[in-house]
Design goal:
Length: about 400
């Protein structure tokens, strides 16, 4: 019977262990936390957005999108749903974003644990892997006080994001030890710091906006949704979505600017007309009161300041040039990104082990026969919306299934 050792008991490791055991392998899973699935518990604000009905490939970013596609074709979103339904999960569909009906991420982690238990997978928690060697065709997995031996090893140690959940980057070290390269892992799905001092004045404001990232002055990507202003800069889902591009650009020494369009449905001219109408009807009020109903007061104040419109002026005193400048600010509210938030505040990392260092979608290393890799450790990062867990399920399943079938 094939002896498979899985390192890491997160989403991809649990899936890999289950897939291998279902193929008849003798599986041992080593997890350094006191329980498996710690990161699963915090996903989707504790509700676990475990996949998404929209599987457009643009949701997955990698240097090798063709391999991501092959993998997702081999273990798809609908196979993932079937898998979890067989374990007992009732799926709740929120506009295509799929959650457990319980509303509890813990039920996903627990269903995986129960399945692993049913399959008699040996799960060893509080077990940190320190070193992995391969000698005479056998893997030696060394922990403090014990050496586990296996025919194959599946690395499923995650990235460096949210290290309090256990993913502290050990997987990169193990992979490098076996000759793999690592595309430097950088924080993604996170907020960004901005240079503008007026961010502090905006802290706490939430406003829907179209968010566009410019790299070295050229449009890179955009997203739309609720932006959260914070003392350090910008946060919220649309900012998370573009953060992986900002992380990579800043790492390469490029400049990053974000422009918020606070009224995407209107042109500058339309906004000028709206502001002129407001002048006519409510022009006796202060500038921020004229903008009441358009934006929260703190935001109106900063918009007026940036447009160079004195806060002491009443609306009816605004000149045509001031109205134009204000309309432009509303359409192009700009921020210079100085850095992205750190690994501690990031949901995932962009970067990791390049997919072309694997033997196709078997997930087996081209460098070391019998070594498999899965999950966020690999160079695939998904958009917010269930795509990172889908990658963990897909890559974990494929790694586990092929690991169990490896020729000795
Ligand atoms: C706050 C937050 C919310 C998120 N929400 C969502 C969401 O709703 N939907 C979605 O799709 N994605 C979400 N994600 C991302 C998703 O959780 C991850 O992409 C996914 O869990 C990665 O799975 P993994 O198995 O690759 O890594 P991990 O889940 O990080 O698992 C790696 C495991 O390996 C263990 N380990 C590491 N080193 C060692 C070692 N040396 N020895 C033994 N064990 C080790 C770790 O303790 C850990 O348990 C979220 C992430 C965060 C942080």
């Amino acid at each position: 019977m094939k002896k498979v050792i899985v390192i890491g008991g997160g989403a991809s490791g649990l899936m890999a262990a289950i897939a291998a055991a279902r193929q008849g392998a003798k599986v041992t899973l080593l997890e350094k936390n006191k329980q498996t699935g710690k990161k699963i518990l915090v996903t989707g604000n504790g509700r676990c957005n475990f996949t998404n009905r929209d599987q457009d490939l643009s949701k997955y970013r990698s240097d090798h999108p063709e391999l991501v596609k092959q993998a997702l074709d081999a273990f798809s979103m609908s196979q993932t749903v079937d898998f979890f339904e067989e374990l007992g999960l009732l799926v709740k569909d929120r506009n295509g974003y799929l959650y457990p009906n319980s509303g509890q991420a813990a039920s996903v982690a627990e269903l995986l644990r129960l399945e692993a238990q049913r399959l008699q997978i040996k799960m060893s928690c509080n077990t940190e892997v320190l070193v992995i060697e391969k000698e005479n065709g056998i893997f030696q997995v060394k922990t403090d006080g014990w050496v586990y031996e296996g025919d194959v090893v599946i690395l499923a140690c995650g990235s460096k994001a949210a290290p309090e959940t256990g993913s502290t980057g050990d997987g990169y070290r193990f992979a490098e030890h076996f000759g793999h390269t690592v595309i430097i892992p950088l924080p993604a799905l996170t907020g960004v710091h901005a240079a503008e001092k007026d961010c502090a004045k905006l802290a706490g404001v939430r406003q829907d906006a179209k968010v566009t990232l410019f790299v070295n002055g050229e449009k890179c990507t955009e997203d739309e949704g609720e932006v959260q202003f914070t003392a350090y800069g910008l946060s919220g889902i649309p900012v998370f979505q573009i953060s992986r591009y900002a992380s990579r650009a800043l790492e390469a020494g490029k400049t990053c600017e974000i422009f918020l369009d606070l009224c995407p449905v209107y042109t500058v001219e339309w906004i000028e007309n709206i502001l002129r109408d407001k002048q006519t009807f409510t022009g006796n009020r202060s500038g921020t009161d004229v903008l009441l109903g358009m934006f929260p007061e703190k935001l109106s104040q900063v918009l007026l300041e940036r447009a160079g419109v004195s806060l002491k002026k009443k609306g009816k005193e605004w000149s045509d040039k001031e109205i134009h400048r204000l309309a432009v600010q509303i359409k192009q509210f700009g921020f210079s990104v100085t850095k992205c938030r750190g690994y501690e505040q990031a949901q995932i990392c962009t970067g990791g082990i390049p997919l072309d260092e694997l033997k196709g979608i078997s997930m087996e290393s081209k460098k070391i026969p019998g070594l498999y890799l899965a999950g966020e450790l690999l160079d695939v990062d998904g958009a917010c919306g269930g795509y990172n867990l889908q990658w963990a399920w897909t890559s974990g399943y494929l790694a586990g299934k092929s690991a169990a079938k490896t020729e000795k």
